[in-house]
Amino acid sequence: MKTVTALLACLVTASVFAVTSPCANAASFKTSFDCTTARASIEKLICRDSQLAQMDIELTRLYRLALTDEHSVPRPDKVMIDQQFWIDARNQCASDREPKACTIRSYAERAHQLRQGSAIVRTKDPDRLTEGPLAFRCTGLNAPIAATFFTTQPGVVYLKWANASVTLNQVPSDSGTQYTGKDYHGSYRFRQDGDVVLFQKPGSAQMSCTAEPAG
Asked: Which of 123, 157, 182 is the last residue of a domain?
């Protein structure tokens, strides 16, 4: 992983030309790839966005751990193939109406897959930026929710139940931790405050949820 910083000359230019300076696009965050040679527009977006850069570093850590786990599902050789397909799909977010939101969803879903498939990925490194999948049983849902969290700034949670999934973003909250988001169905909300967990999806009332062992 490499730390990319703007050149001193660029900083001098910025003081003269302000927002028109090339510094506005200069890479300044640590990523898993070399931002100075990045060509894909999504890679360039990641390089200049702190939240996405954090997700990129963490996802790469999870991926490398999965390659060391002979018991991972799928096996390491398939994980490697899937990762390349994932990178290609992530880069397609450039054509999305909201490229950053699309990229966040891509990272969140891939992190969920890697953590779900490998015990080593789930348990290695106490300073990790991901947790889960954690299981929650909610009143009104026939299937439990599997939740994978990115403790970035701001945070992200990926929720999956039955044949549905959604990625929500952390928002300010007076108490506990709250995530909100939308898809073509409508608005979602997921809130944790100690042992109190609440979930609301489009067309339903707020549901009370309880944690249960992830299976």
From this structure: 123
Render pLDDT for 77-117 as a digit per residue (tens, 0 to 9).
999 999 999 999 999 999 999 999 999 999 999 999 999 99
85 within domain boundaries: yes
d(CA 114, CA 98): 25
Number of CB atoms found within 10 A of residue 187's CB:
12
pLDDT tens, residue by residue, 134-151: 999 999 899 999 999 999
Dihedral in degrees, nearest 10, Cα atoms 34, 81, 215, 170: 30
The answer to whether residue 144 sits within a structural domain is yes
Distance (Å, whole) CA 23 – CA 5: 10
Range of the domain at 189: 130-212
> What are the E-state strand segments in 121-163?
130-138, 145-150, 156-161
Please tell me the total count of domains within the chain: 2
Q: CA 116 to CA 112: how far, in whole Å?
A: 6
| Model confidence, pTM | 0.85
